[in-house]
């Protein structure tokens, strides 16, 4: 049921860090459309009433070289987390996942 | 199933469907039998949300009479119930919902079954204590928040001539539902109102955009909303506004060749996207709640921009550029005000006390409010937009162009009128000639008849 205390779970925070690190790495080579969609997803994974956890430019165990791979993996986790009952967290995960679906489509559509 | 099981199952399926995202534009439309299941399930979800909201409010039927715009903030549950009551059923077939939903393991059918089972709890829900009702309403609001996007996704999956497309794509109830469900989700059972500031009578109302030519109106609404939030604008909302402007430029003046018919003066817009991108990617944080109205108007504008991308209309650009420039200016001013009020957090430029800059946030020093890199980037984009707006053909030129067009139209009309007059005169003359021939013939016949008539 609804948890009024925290909107962002540790898992969501970890995914936000991955997305931010991926953006940091690929800042210059991603199309604007993708960058804005990923930023919107990051904002859905951020509690508006709290300062987010420290982010790192490098995430151990995550291959940041492939932006599509990072987006796809995070999207899959968020989609799974979206089905967690009537909570703000689930809704935030669902909305972030929608943005990442758009980003993924835009990236795959533009690939040669 | 218990109430908790049912509402959890419903929310699980609904948020899962939401996460799946909009249908691919290349996907085939749903076949009729699948559409029947999905639409029935969707109707059950809307009915359960409506029934539960009504039960929690102690209402059976709804009317929008007596409701005012400010009630979207003051009485969001009441407005949510009214809006849900205006949403018609989309399945018009003859099969029953139990027939369609039983034995189907898809997400929509599961959501439909969970929704149907919730209707068995309406009587008990009405007896809940007040505090529990607030919590229950928030759970219902989570499901209701998903309905606008799910309806839009469904509309995109149906064949173009399907009768359910129109109600599913009707933007007015969906925009309202988006706002009020968001308001409800912000409430707290202990009466703590994070949204109390939004009870301000100066609150800006949100309109619905119906066609791409409404986009500049949407931008002006955003200007009003940004100014209304003032220094308390959330960083995420600022980025959402930046995205609206960047997406608009991408549609009106894409990086590749300009769409046919778009005038040259728009080429100056190409200077803005790099600055907007920098503004969106530069770390900046706030600890203020997001304004649901900004995201609603943003979604409305994005939807219309998608239409515009499919069918370019140069007339939109005429009003879009000055409105976007105004929006960028308002946003920059707002962020400066936030900085002056000590409400913005940024990453420090240099390492402080041996910590890496990425490791923490620091309040932007008030004296540096104007030097905020995000503000600088937005001002840069705003300059490009204002320069482009200044390069628009002047009203005199436009008037001359318009006069020329009117003169051409007038000349063409006069020419057509002259031809018409000639044609009419010709026809009148022919008719007169025929009439005189006929009357002569008639007279001659009468004479012959009279001549041939036997005398009495």
Question: Which labels suit this protein?
Answer:
heterodimer, A: about 110 residues, mainly alpha, B: about 450 residues
Strand tally of chain A: 0
Our measurement of the CA-to-CA distance between the termini of chain A, rounded to an integer number of angstroms, reads 45 Å
Rg calc of chain A: 14 Å
N/C terminus separation of chain B:
108 Å
Outline of chain B: globular
Radius of gyration of chain B: 32 Å
| Individual helix count of chain A | 4
Beta-strand fraction estimate of chain A: under 5%
CA-based shape of chain A: globular
Class by alpha and beta content of chain B: mainly alpha
Order of helix and strand elements from N to C terminus of chain B: HHHHHHHHHHHHHEHHEEHH
- As laid out across the biggest beta sheet of chain B, the strand order is 1-2-3
Count all strands of chain B and give the number: 3
**H/E element sequence of chain A:** HHHH
Largest sheet of chain A: none
Mean pLDDT of chain B: 81
Which structural class fits the helix and strand makeup of chain A? mainly alpha
Low-pLDDT ranges of chain A: none
Q: Pair with the most extensive interface?
A: A-B, 41 and 54 residues
């Amino acid at each position: 049921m609804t948890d009024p205390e925290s909107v962002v779970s540790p898992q969501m925070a970890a995914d936000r860090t991955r997305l931010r690190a991926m953006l940091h790495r690929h800042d210059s080579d991603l199309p604007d459309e993708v960058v804005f969609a990923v930023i919107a997803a990051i904002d859905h994974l951020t509690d508006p009433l709290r300062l987010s956890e420290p982010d790192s430019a490098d995430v151990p165990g995550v291959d940041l070289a492939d932006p599509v791979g990072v987006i796809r993996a995070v999207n899959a986790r968020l989609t799974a987390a979206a089905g967690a009952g009537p909570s703000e967290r689930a809704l935030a995960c669902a909305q972030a996942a929608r943005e990442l679906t758009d980003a993924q489509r835009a990236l795959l559509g533009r690939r040669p | 199933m218990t109430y908790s099981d049912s509402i959890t199952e419903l929310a699980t399926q609904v948020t899962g469907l939401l996460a799946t995202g909009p249908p691919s534009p290349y996907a085939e439309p749903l076949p009729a039998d699948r559409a029947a299941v999905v639409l029935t399930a969707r109707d059950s979800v809307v009915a359960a949300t409506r029934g539960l909201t009504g039960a929690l409010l102690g209402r059976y039927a709804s009317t929008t009479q007596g409701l005012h715009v400010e009630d979207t903030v003051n009485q969001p549950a009441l407005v949510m119930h009214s809006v849900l009551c205006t949403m018609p059923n989309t399945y018009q077939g003859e099969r029953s919902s139990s027939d369609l939903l039983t034995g189907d393991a898809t997400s929509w059918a599961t959501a439909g079954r969970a929704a149907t089972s919730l209707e068995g709890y309406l009587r008990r829900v009405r007896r809940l204590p007040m505090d529990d009702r607030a919590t229950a309403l928030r759970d219902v609001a989570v499901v209701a928040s998903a309905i606008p996007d799910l309806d839009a996704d469904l509309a995109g999956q149906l064949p173009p001539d399907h009768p359910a497309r129109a109600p599913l794509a009707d933007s007015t109830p969906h925009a309202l539902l988006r706002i009020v469900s968001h308001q409800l989700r912000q409430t707290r059972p202990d009466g703590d109102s994070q949204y109390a500031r939004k009870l301000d009578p100066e609150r800006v109302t949100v309109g619905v955009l119906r066609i791409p030519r409404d986009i500049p109106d949407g931008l002006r609404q955003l200007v009003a909303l940004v100014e209304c939030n003032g220094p308390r604008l959330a960083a995420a909302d600022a980025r959402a506004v930046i995205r609206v402007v960047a997406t608009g430029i991408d549609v009106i003046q894409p990086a590749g060749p300009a769409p046919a018919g778009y005038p040259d003066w728009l080429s100056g817009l190409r200077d803005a996207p790099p600055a907007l991108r920098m503004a969106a990617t530069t770390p900046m944080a706030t600890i203020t709640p997001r304004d649901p109205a900004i995201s609603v108007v943003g979604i409305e504008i994005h939807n219309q921009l998608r239409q515009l991308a499919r069918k370019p209309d140069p007339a939109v650009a005429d009003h879009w550029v000055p409105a976007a420039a105004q929006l960028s200016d308002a946003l920059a001013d707002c962020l400066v005000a936030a900085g002056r009020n000590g409400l913005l957090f940024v990453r420090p430029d240099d390492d402080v006390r041996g910590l890496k800059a990425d490791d923490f946030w620091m309040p932007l020093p008030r004296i540096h409010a104007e030097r905020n890199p995000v503000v600088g980037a937005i001002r840069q984009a705003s300059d490009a937009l204002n320069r482009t707006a200044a390069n628009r053909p002047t009203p005199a030129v436009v008037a001359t162009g318009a006069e020329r067009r009117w003169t051409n139209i007038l000349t063409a009309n006069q020419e057509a009128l002259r031809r018409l007059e000639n044609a009419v005169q010709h026809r009148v003359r022919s008719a007169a000639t025929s009439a005189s021939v006929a009357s002569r013939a008639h007279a001659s016949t009468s004479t012959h008849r009279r001549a041939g008539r036997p005398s009495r």
